[in-house]
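User: Show me an example of a complex going from sequences to structure tokens.

Assistant: Sure. Here are the input components:
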Amino acid sequence: MKNRVAIAFLAATVGFAGSAAAQEMVFTSWGGTTQDAQKTYWAESFTTSSGIKVTQDGPTDYGKIKAMVESGNVTWDVVDVEGDYAVQAGNAGLLEKLDFSVIDRSKLDPRFVTDYSVGSFYYSFVIGCNTDAVAECPKTWADLFDTAKFPGKRTFYKWSAPGVVEAALLADGVPADQLYPLDLDRAFKKLDTIKADIIWWDSGAQSQQLLASAEAPFGSFWNGRLTALAETGVSVETSWTNNITAADSLVVPKGAKNKEAAMKFIAAATSGPAQAQFATETGYAPINLEASALMDAELRKTLPDMQAETQVNADMSYWAEHRDEIGTRWYAWQAE
Amino acid sequence: MALWATAGATGNGKRDGSLGYLVPALLLVVIFFIIPVLMLLLRSVLEPEPGLQNYATLLGSTTYLRIFLNTFIVAAVVTILSVSIGYPVAWLLAIMPEKWSRLVLAIIILSMWTNLLARTYAWMVLLQRTGVINKTLMGLGLIDAPLPLVNNLVGVTIGMTYIMLPFVILPLMGVIRAIDPGILRAAALCGAGRLQCFLRVLLPLSLPGVAAGALMVFVMSLGYFVTPALLGGTSNMMLAELVAQFVQSLVNWGMGGAAALVLLVVTLALYAVQLRYFNPNAAR
């Protein structure tokens, strides 16, 4: 009982200190061109309108989030995380509930909203190819898994996350509407057939470097990274056939020092204009339902939400539930 | 670097009776090293539930055992290469005129001061399929297709050997410099040929330096992260990468702690062996 009083007292003091120092907060994301855009179109315009200074940090590190929450010294206020992690971490008690009296839930794409998270932006895993390096480009996941027709190295996302397992199953002929629950045995068997020809990319910047240098002339990429690469003059071809969507989410770690500012930041970052500007810059799709109308019509055609015809939505709640199981198996398979 | 500094300090055999001066240093070690290691140990037997299941999983899986084995093989190969390349360099540095040896030494040390990431990325650029090395070899008509030099064991070995070289050269140079040139002259006067001079005089006398450098490189290689992560592929993963994966991606700290501790125990055991059998004081 005594302890509980002490904790309550402590929490009250911390809460008080938090609101007193609410003129500053920390936003953490994955670095590179994506975070640059988040800084410009979300953080800086938020600072202008609210007067709250936003410090950038990164890269996002789930180990660090856990360490911060456990030690009670949470230095990140808003973090850009992968959608499946957001669902899992929310269930595991690592996140603050979002304040939907500040954040306007009705304007947000409901696919990416939970009690603990809202979408940050969403993207597709697409097939990218350097047309200067090869005579013919793979058009489908089956092509990308066909080493006889398309010899050479191909690059895939290294970390266990929605995308690669789905691609393997689609390549093996599983119909898009029957992907879940994922047949992991079948996926890994398919992946085994190209394992020796895979170079893994562990960051968006690395994926661009691999494709531009033709170290891997084709592979699976985040669509926005291909848009950015094409703008630098590299001859990139993008195939949207069966593009696999996944989203990043914005979350507030439990015990964040500037919770109030964090909620306001999320409200601003997910607003129509902020989402539209971010999407224009990066080629990732907005998660605010009003954002598309604010964007250039030509540009909208290059966004994942206009490629819905053969689109496959990765099932975030399936992933959240099986994240550890798939992850353990994924990394063990990689190391074999 | 601290390692050979202490090796040198105890080398003259002086032992100060009072431990009082050591208290601040000991305190530092306890707070910043011993306590965190103990906490790691605790996590490895408490998470996700009390018991030794993390160790059982780790040591019972062929995948993880292969990573252990791979780590040791890479560390051994890097050590052998570093010593084979570093020895002649150290020897040359020891017998060179002072002004030249200073210059070469400055270059070696300067490379150590350059950011590790920058150096590793430089190797990535050099070694890739469209990199300078492959382009040159193809341009000369020596090879038809680019050699796979990166994202595999070759890349890791090249990158790590390069980074570890100074750690062999510096202690070795000190040891070779300390050898009285008169001994070599005496050997030659007694009729020893060049090879014999090297094999029976110089090499045995410089062995403590070789052992110190080799152990340092081996131990550092065992726990290396950046270079294998950037230049290697996933099928030849090293232990430090596995630990990072457990801690950051899977957020399974119990397993991460267990893997880190196994590595620590093996490293300490190796160090103990080195102290027992290759003690520089005993060798002299």
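The lines above are the inputs; the final block is the predicted structure for all two components together. The mean pLDDT of chain A is 90.
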